[in-house]
Amino acid sequence: MPTLDKVSVDLTVVLGTTSMPIHQVLRLSRGAIIELDATEADEVKILANNMPIASGVVLVDRNRIAVEVKQMLTRSPDRR
């Protein structure tokens, strides 16, 4: 397994999305609130190197935020 120790994977959790004009994006400042098309009860998408691999839910325990994987997505033969 020493070879795998050097492999880097970029993990992303998508909580929701939104759409806004570029002039609004340029006016965003620190502390700005961006409304998403999701609620806290919705599932999140989990991406590895920008490829969807799973879905899950957000868990909050005091000051810690985690993501629990609920379902691994099947891979198509062309993504192997």
From TrEMBL:
Highest taxon above the source species: Bacteria
Source organism per UniProt: Rhodopseudomonas telluris
InterPro entries named among the record's database cross-references: FliN-like_C, FliN_T3SS_HrcQb, SpoA-like_sf
Coiled coil regions in record: none
Name of the featured protein: FliM/FliN family flagellar motor switch protein
UniProt similarity note: Belongs to the FliN/MopA/SpaO family.
Flagellar motor switch protein FliN-like C-terminal domain location: 4-73
Keyword field: Cell projection, Cilium, Flagellum
Residues spanning the signal sequence: none
Statement: the UniProt record of this protein carries the keyword Zinc-finger: no
